[in-house]
Write a structure and sequence with these properties.
alpha/beta; 10 helices; globular; 39% helix; disordered C terminus
Length: 272
């Protein structure tokens, strides 16, 4: 459906990066953070603030792209299936838009046919942990076990050797998690656009989802959505159409990483 992106040695080289300096603000690697940002507005990118920006940059973690190109990146978190992922996949296929699905072990086991379709359609699978724990409170071995167990089940199901991108459940993390992730070959991907869309029984309507997305859209947006919401499934085609109308192109997380690293071939074959 679209070009296959580089997922091997080139990207892996960028994941395991050592710190140039240590910010004293983050003296303890066990300090726990809940991902929170100043929302994007009027096309201006979301901001996490200098301390968090420095921490994420130290470990190569990313939450947005560069602000000078109208590019957006769709990501979805899937902990369980609620009947709307197929519609979302249909929309992505029709619009030829790539996405990354951050899955849990429960989703691999309970919605295996949808996972196989994600892979067949050319989407990326991200590691959202196997059991959806608070990853920041695990030991180093516990962190490794969560990621590896997920990858093992994914390999068994799809033949994919392993995942490259990780996202901590509920956005809870610490420096230790980012450090161990790097050592294991994972790059953490957060987000710059999100809204309350994870309650399966709380419907607010497609307009709510559409407005939440369009109001926060900005160059380099990494968009987080949950597939449990019917509102999202209904709003997605409208949002994609509006974003394209505004001149946005949707690219993959591979493109985002290459852009972040100033890799010279980044985006060359994806420029509209």
């Amino acid at each position: 459906m679209w070009k296959q992106h580089i997922v091997g040695a080139v990207l892996a080289t960028f994941i395991i990066a050592a710190a140039v300096s240590i910010n004293p603000y983050f003296a303890s690697s066990s300090d726990e953070y809940n991902w929170g940002i100043k929302r994007a507005k009027d096309g201006n990118p979301a901001e996490a603030g200098a301390p968090l920006d420095q921490l994420l940059d130290k470990y190569g973690a990313i939450y947005k792209g560069k602000p000078d190109r109208k590019v957006a990146y769709l990501t979805f978190d899937n902990g369980y299936e609620n009947g709307f992922t197929e519609s979302i996949l249909d929309t992505l296929q029709k619009e030829e838009v790539p996405a990354t699905f951050f899955l849990t072990g429960h989703y691999l086991e309970s919605a295996s046919d949808l996972v196989k379709r994600m892979v067949e359609d050319g989407h990326t699978i991200g590691n959202h942990s196997y059991g959806h724990p608070n990853m920041a409170r695990l030991s180093r071995d516990g962190m490794r076990a969560e990621w590896r167990k997920f990858d093992g089940k994914l390999r068994e199901l799809t033949g994919i050797d392993r995942t490259t991108y990780a996202r901590p459940p509920e956005g809870t993390f610490n420096a230790k998690l980012l450090e161990v992730g790097n050592a294991e070959g994972y790059r953490h991907i957060f987000w710059s656009v999100a809204f309350k869309d994870w309650l399966k029984d709380e419907r607010r309507g497609a307009d709510y989802a559409y407005n939440s997305l369009t109001e926060q859209l900005h160059p380099g947006a990494v968009i987080l959505m949950h597939t449990v919401a019917q509102d999202n499934a209904e709003a997605l085609p409208l949002f994609i159409a509006e974003a394209k109308k505004q001149g946005y192109t949707f690219l993959s997380l591979d493109d985002l990483v290459l852009e972040y690293e100033d890799f010279p071939v980044a985006l060359q074959s994806s420029t509209p």
